[in-house]
């Protein structure tokens, strides 16, 4: 199953923030983490993650820094900022509201 | 492996991004390739899979162009020019106030000076709008603006035309007050006054157009260049027919070239 384009666009920012709230991470690892947590159900086009990351950085929700990776190349790590945590909290509430409504409805249907 | 390096190089050429962003994207691609090599895939297969997971280069570039919120440099120059000019306005004010004129008319200058300052500013802003329009027309021959830059232009155009309208209108009223004392009547249907009034009407029309649903960047730019003709008529209508005609000819030529170019790009 692949998510609709609109749903990917709406959910990518909160999902990235969610991953970063576990700890600092970088592009490739963030994608892998989302794949893993969704059981492979959420598959992003890898390149599209970067515009999201840079938008979040521009908005002051995350902070990026270059670090030398074990491969010898530089890697850009991102960490969530306080403003980002607040934003994530708000997003989580909204997604939960949608989700619980759906669940209640299907609960009624099959009751 | 040399082959793989060459192919990564080719992939990089397809991306219209540069600097650290390129480094980040390339790092990602290399990491994905490494992971696939570790899984036992051939270099060829690993590269192909990693690139397809990455997505089409033009899509990634397009996403960045959409995000780019940079201000187009002529817009930035116009904003700074206006700030500097506004700072110099008091100099113009005092230059009018202290000339060598018979002292008995000195009090009239106190009425004239604010009129000259505000009208000059209003006219200059209108010329500035046309100047931005000409910059846009010229830019068309080099490269298209990014959506962010286009937004910065249309936003600046609206603000500048609002300021131009307010200053010209205030200047016109101040001029009428001065005329009431100096000529004995506020309105005389002379070229200067009528020109200023026509310009205010034009500016109101231009503002309403920009707020309407018919507005797009090309039409707005076209009208801003037409605005230069209107302001030239108000400015040089009495002083120099030669300058006025030159201005009209110059701007009509630009409009002609610009619309021909716009049609050509629309057709291609």
Return residue spans of chain A where pLDDT drops below 50 for at least 5 consecutive residues.
Answer: none
The outline of chain B comes out as: elongated
Number of helical runs of chain A? 4
Using CB atoms under 8 Å apart, which protein chain pair has the greatest interface? A-B, 17 and 21 residues
CATH-level-4 superfamily name of chain A? Winged helix-like DNA-binding domain superfamily/Winged helix DNA-binding domain
Broad structural category of chain A: alpha+beta
Task: Count the E strands of chain B.
Answer: 0
The number of distinct β-strands of chain A equals 3
**Average pLDDT taken over every residue of chain A:** 88
Query: Can you tell me the CATH topology of chain A?
Result: Arc Repressor Mutant, subunit A
- H/E series of chain A: HEHHEEH
Biggest sheet of chain A: strands side by side, in what order? 1-3-2
Question: How would you portray this structure in words?
Answer:
The complex is a heterodimer of chains A (111) and B (268). Chain A contains four helices and three strands; from the N terminus they run αβααββα. The longest helix of chain A has 29 residues. Chain B folds into two domains: 65 residues, no CATH class; 198 residues, no CATH class. In chain B, helix 7 packs antiparallel against helix 8.
């Amino acid at each position: 199953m692949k998510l609709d384009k609109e749903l990917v666009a709406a959910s990518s920012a909160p999902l990235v923030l969610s991953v970063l709230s576990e700890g600092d991470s970088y592009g490739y690892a963030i994608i892998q983490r989302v794949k893993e947590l969704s059981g492979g159900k959420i598959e992003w086009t890898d390149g599209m993650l970067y515009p999201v990351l840079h938008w979040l950085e521009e908005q002051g929700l995350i902070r990026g820094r270059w670090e030398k990776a074990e491969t010898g190349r530089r890697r850009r790590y991102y960490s969530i900022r306080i403003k980002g945590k607040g934003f994530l909290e708000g997003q989580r509430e909204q997604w939960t509201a949608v989700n619980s409504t759906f669940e209640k409805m299907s609960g009624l249907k099959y009751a | 492996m040399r082959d793989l390096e060459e192919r990564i190089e080719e992939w990089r050429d397809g991306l219209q991004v540069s600097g650290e962003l390129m480094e980040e994207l390339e790092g990602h691609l290399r990491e994905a390739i490494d992971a696939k090599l570790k899984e036992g895939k051939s270099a060829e297969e690993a590269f192909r899979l990693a690139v397809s997971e990455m997505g089409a280069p033009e899509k990634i570039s397009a996403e960045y162009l959409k995000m780019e919120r940079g201000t187009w440099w002529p817009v930035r120059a116009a904003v700074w020019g206006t700030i500097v000019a506004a700072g110099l306005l008091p100099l113009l004010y005092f230059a009018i106030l202290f000339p060598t004129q018979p002292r008995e008319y000195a009090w009239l200058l106190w009425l004239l000076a604010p009129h000259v300052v505000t009208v000059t500013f209003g006219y200059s802003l209108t010329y500035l709008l046309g100047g931005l329009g000409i910059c846009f027309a010229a830019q068309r021959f080099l490269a298209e603006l990014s959506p962010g830059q286009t937004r910065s232009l249309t936003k600046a155009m609206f603000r500048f035309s609002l300021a131009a309208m307010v200053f010209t209108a205030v200047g016109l009223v101040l001029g009428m007050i001065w005329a009431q004392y100096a000529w004995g009547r506020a309105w005389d249907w002379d070229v200067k006054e009528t020109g200023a009034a026509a310009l205010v009407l034009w500016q109101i029309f231009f503002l309403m157009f920009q707020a309407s649903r018919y507005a797009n960047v090309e039409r707005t730019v076209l009208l801003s260049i037409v605005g230069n003709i209107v302001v030239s008529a108000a400015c040089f209508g009495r002083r120099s027919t030669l300058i006025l005609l030159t201005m009209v000819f110059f701007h009509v030529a630009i409009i002609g070239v610009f619309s021909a170019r716009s049609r050509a790009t629309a057709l291609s």
